[in-house]
Amino acid sequence: YLGRRVANPSGLPYPPGPKPLPLVGNLFDAPKHDSSKIFSAWGKQYGELVHMSMFGEHFVIINSLRVAEDLLEKRSKKYSDKPVIPLIELTGWDWNLGLLPYGDRWRVRRREIHQQFRAEKVDDYAPVVMKHAHQLLDNLLNTPANYQSHLKHYVGAVILKITYDYDVAHEDDRYVYMAERAAGIGGTLFVPGGTLANVFPILCHLPAWLPGMEFKRQAEECMKLTTEMRNMPVEYVKRQMKSGAPSACVTSELIRRFSNSNGLSTDSEDVIKDVSAVAYAGGAETTAASLKTAILIMLLHPDATREAQREIDSVIGNARLPTLDDRGSMPYVDAFFREVLRWHPVTPLSVPRKASEDDVYEGYFIPKGATVVQNTWAIHHDEQLYDEPSMFKPERFLERDGSLSDRYPMTLFGMGRRICPGRYLADSAIWAAIALILAVFDIAKAKDENGRDIEIAEAYTDAIVSHPLPFACSIKPRTRGAESLVREEAGAVQNGTA
Ligand code: HEM
After folding, report:
1. Residue 293: which CATH number?
2. Which residues are CB-contacts of 254 (< 8 A; sequence separation ≥ 6)?
3. What pLDDT is stored for residue 163 in this prediction?
4. Which of the four pLDDT bands, split at 50, 70 and 90, describes residue 192?
5. Chain mean position to CA 312
6. Could you give the number of structural domains in the chain?
7. Residue 9, in any domain of the structure
8. 54: in domain
């Protein structure tokens, strides 16, 4: 009772939610899978803001745009902090901007990443995006069955070129391996049920050789990888700059700007390493997962896909491929792209925040330290905002006269002060890949050995970044002419004339 009075001196109720048990709270109610959909159902049962607790830790889940705007935007001073995850320091992920506590260290890095990826700057990256999008088409033409790895490679290549002027090897690239392995370990250890150390942080201080300390051995491996992925490419850029090779990238620009007559201070070098490394860490998996969803949609919704292809054919014709400059003349393709982002948000529960002060919202108490979750899936599937939200309907982003409306599912990228700084690059890279794939390929269900369609389950992984489970599909060029255009562009890239 005393504990409750100290934690909640106002005596006001917490937001409604499932009834907690003593001590363990809602441990047995907490979803083990499909969390965003279960939280969404709780939203219908309990309200737009839902509360649950586990072992004295409070969680509030925001299920509507209205409450998300009220808390994450209008009260962003109180809701821009991040929850402390005990394993972050141990795994070496503590430089990741998206996990940094709100404060000066975050502010300095945020300012720099915003500068490098703001809308106008991303316009300058268009040639890099288009060059790698053409490479993606060529890869899809050559080995369509490996489409998942081609999409991943496209996104990684764009980000690493922009950030470090680094050309990714198609297979077995050391940087890509490090980043993915480190993200994989972090992804399994950071989730609440990932290891007992999340509930009892004291376990982090026990030696790794003790039984049950597997998480510490994994954390040690992760620490080596996160350290190398932060240091290695910056050293590469420094070597390039020293050798006199022209190096125009985020890192070289930061090195030039931060250097003085004595070179770089340790603090500046830290900022440069953090800002550069977080572009791949924040952008690669999210953007690739969106593209996998786009392919799944092309497979499941042939009518909308054909409509988009009709628009491309009539605007572009068949003598060239679409470019980012054509975007304004193809409203249906843009609406298709926006609906891809809305229909299955790849970050269904965004990235959790923490309340940095006690707060009262509409008569409910939100305690300092509570983890605050933006349920993007619930917002994107709210009937008040989108009619028949489970349907894939690009038209919802069009005006009656067929022009593109001002609506954009921006909530996908979070809200308020911590909104994703990479959203303009994601927008451009995803649009380019979707438009080019639509222009060149017919995507259809793969056939089994008896010539029957292999049916697709609409199933997704349940993690911070949600991917469709692997599915087979047939990716074939729509026409001979389209195939030749892809080969020509790829040839120009190889000859260095693109
Ligand atoms: C489809 C692609 C992407 C999606 C869905 C996405 C989504 C998100 C979300 C939901 C957040 C958390 C926002 C919040 O706390 O409210 C975030 C943060 C972040 N994203 Fe993205 N992102 C994408 C692409 C990118 C790209 C391409 C980059 C890098 C160039 C990037 C870099 C970051 C960084 C650095 C943060 C941390 C920001 C901070 O905490 O201040 N993201 N992103």
Report:
1. 1.10.630.10
2. 112, 116, 271, 272, 275, 276
3. 97
4. low
5. 27
6. 1
7. no
8. no
- Residue located nearest, by CA, to atom 6 of ligand 1: 413
Say whether 312 sits in a helix, a strand or coil: helix
In tens, the pLDDT along 463-485 reads 889 999 999 999 999 999 999 99
Could you give the CA distance from residue 489 to residue 492 in angstroms, rounded to a whole number? 5
CB of 164 within 6 A of ligand 1: the answer is no
Measured from the CB, is residue 422 less than 6 Å from ligand 1? yes
| CA separation for the pair 43, 383 (Å, rounded) | 13
pTM of the model: 0.94
DSSP letter, residue 199: T
413 lines ligand 1 (CB under 6 A): yes
The response to whether 222 counts as a known ligand-binding position is no
Q: How far is the CA of 412 from the centre of ligand 1 (A)?
A: 9
Ligand 1 centroid to Cα of residue 109, in Å, is 14
Residue 324: pLDDT over 90: yes
Two tokens at 313? 């054919």
pLDDT in tens, 364-403: 999 999 999 999 999 999 999 999 999 999 999 999 999 9
Dihedral angle computed from the Cα positions of residues 170, 463, 102 and 413, in that order, rounded to the nearest 10 degrees: 70
